[in-house]
Structures are given as C-alpha cells and as structure tokens.
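Q: Entry one of two.
A:
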Amino acid sequence: MRHQEPITKLTFKSLDFEYSVQDRILLDCSFEFPMNSVVALKGNFGAGKSTVLKLLATLAEPNSGEYWINDHLVSDMSFEELIPFRLKMGYGFDYGGLLNNKSLRDNLMLPLQYHKLTSSEEMAERVSGLMEKFDLSFVGSHRPSSVSGSQRKLTCVLRALVVNPEVLLLDNPTHGLNENAVGLLIDEIRLRRESGELKHVFLVSDDERIQDQIVEQKVWINGLKLKRESNDKSKV
C-alpha cells in the first residue's frame, strides 16, 4: 500500500554535485522546484540536466548539501523510509535501463511485482493496457535486443508510467519515437494531469512538440546554479 503523504515540495539546499573537479554540475545550489506543473530542465550540452533528474529521483547523491522531499531530509532517511516516496516517482532513462534477459512485457511488470503495488491480475491488466495503447503488444514477448531502438525507448518511458506516479521524471522521452508515439505520450501526460493522478512532471527535451504543447515552466542550469523561468503558459 502506498504512503499517504503526497509529494508537495522538492528542494535543494546548498547542494554540490560533481563527477570530478573538472566536471562540476551544481555548486552551493539552493532551489525550490516548481510543483504542480510540467517543467523542462534547460541548459547547454553537458550542463547536467540528466544529473538533476537523477538527483530528484534519488538515483544520485549530492557530494554535499541537502535534498529535501517535503520536510524530509533525504540523506537522513533510511531505505525503508525513502521507498514510499520513490514509489510515487516514475523515472524514464535516456538510454538503457531495461533488463536484456526479460521480455518487454516482463520489464514493465518488474516494478509492480517488486514492490507488490497491486494484485497479479491488475498488474497484467495495467501493463497490457499500456502496451496496447502505445502499439507495443505485438512485440511484448520480445527481448530488448530483438526490437527497434524506438520500441526500446518507448518501453523505458512506459516503465516510468506503469507505476501511476505522482512525479514523472523523463530524460529525452521522445528521442527516436515516431510522430504517432509522441502524440500518444503527450496525450497520456495530459490525461493523467487532468485526472489529478500525475501532479508534477520534470523532463529534459529539446523536442519542439513537447516544448510547445505541454511544457509550462522552464528551469535553467546556468553557472552551476538552477534558475526558474516562467513560460506564462497553462496548457495542461
């Protein structure tokens, strides 16, 4: 059963992150992220947009400083205390992330099975529904290595959606997808936002279709800091 506390605030406090001294991403960064919105992370190539997504998803740890979810300091939370919040997050990798020895369908089932989020029947129904909606059913029994790059990418995106997250984090979600798949993804995000199920979306994308149709706000990585820019749009 899911933790009842919703995610309402995501905050960096004096946060530093670097891969090396020559590859710093954030330095003494304090920033409260826009919520209840579709937010695009922007910046030059190599600025660290994907890294910020991983920090938000707790898949990367800051070198120093603090990351807060609501009023909870992530570094002070045990694995068991953090899990209920991570279950409210869906994360779609730019590349990879699928298990090569599992079929596409089984890859989508894994997060539901591992966390026992619902009954076996509901799991199968949820996965089948998503695969049918995005025209992946005919390759559902295939392994990632035997399908196209577009089908692998789409499966990565659907794995972020299959847990019915409150917070959706997507890294270049439309890269390699055809026009139909992009339209279906935009519609799915809109529908989930309108229903109130999906509350917060953070994504990295230069796709003009995404920027024009659903992005409401932008956060720029500039000078090792995060800065907010409003699009003055309310599209979703």
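Q: Entry two of two.
A:
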Amino acid sequence: GFSAIHIDAGSLESDQLLDNAALQQAYTQAAADTGVMIGAIAASYLSEYGLTNPKGTENAHKCWELIKVSIEAASQMKVGCVFFPSFAASEIHSENDLMRTAEIVHEACIYAESHDLHLATENTLSASDQLKLLKTVDHPKFLVLIDTLNPVLWGHNTNQLVEELWPFLSDQLHIKDGINGKMGNAVLGTGDAGFLETAQTLVARGFDGTLISENDYCGEREAYAARDIAVISGLFSLY
C-alpha cells in the first residue's frame, strides 16, 4: 500500500554499491513496474566511515567517495534527494565534529550544484545546533531530514524541531513511533514520538512532501502496514 521508498547507496566494499549501472537500472525498472517512487538515496555507510574524521584520513576519503557515488546515482536515476545520516561514527558530539561535518557537506553541495536534487542531513542535534550546521554549510541545496521518533530518543521535541526548522526542512520525512526507547514498535500515534502533534503541525504548515515509514512490519506485514497507512491517511489526506 505504500507509494514511495528510500533506498541505500551501499558500501564501498559491497557489490551492491550504486555506482553499478545495472543495479541503478534494476532499481529504476522495479520502481516503474510497481509504481513505487524512489524518493531518496541514503548514504548510510557514512555512519560507519565517519564524516567527522579529519580531512586526509582514509575514512574521510571513503566518505567523500560514497558521497560522490550517491549524488551521481541520484542524478542518473532522477531521484530528488540524497541524505547523509550522522549517527554512530558520524554523530556530531562537539564543535569540531560540527565544523568538520559542515566542511565536507559544503563540498558535497558544490559537487551537486549541476544536479537537480537536494542534500539533507539526518542527525541527533538540537534545533539550535541544526541551525548552526545549516548556517555553517551555507548552501541552498542543504536541508534537514526530520524523523518523528529519533529526536525524542536524543532528548529533543520533534514538534519543536519542525516549528523551528520549518524553512529548512526537506520535503522527505521519516515517520515512525516507538515505546520503551525502541524504534518502530508502535502504531503511529500510539508511542512516545508525539506523532499526532507533529503531524498536526506539518499539516498546518502545508507539508505536501513524501512520508517514509520506518516502523517495523515484520510478521503480518500487510495488516501492520495498513494500520499505519490508515493513520497517515486520516491525518494527511494523502490517499
């Protein structure tokens, strides 16, 4: 019942890296066959390589190579967003981490200037630090991809982030809910994310982008997905 998906760029060490033209074509054909739009490409392995590594190091080189692969693949596949997760080895803990992340993201924005897409960050920062990152990167292609549950797990209020970052939000949004500190284990609106309040704010603000559910649908997949789709439909009038 879903109409959009986010896919991963793969790792540099994998045969599933999206620099492979045949793999790009397979994804594009699958999207055409199913009618499911590929909304964004995630450079997920940045969280393993570490965006915060000093320039000139091996892992910094890996980050840059993966960023280029992701942007080029998105351009070839006509995907409108590439996002950079700043978790695990890429999590921003300090001023130095933020400045180093901003440096490489700014370079990525320049690299992407000739491509019809935008770049986004998904991270653990507060609203004020998100704004600082945006200001430091200082490029119109760079936006923030919000997740409805993650900020709560990092001690933030998702609705507040939406309000304060609204002009800088990507039109791609991750939605999930959860209880007891776990991700995706609750029907949307029944967990700790404050999803209903965030959804109301998004609707009031006129959000008309792409919602990507990251809830866990293992088991009775169609039934579990249908419950969340019903919530989304009721709140956003998308279906």
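A: Comment on entry two: The CA atoms of residues 41 and 198 lie 24 Å apart. DSSP finds nine helices and seven strands in the chain.
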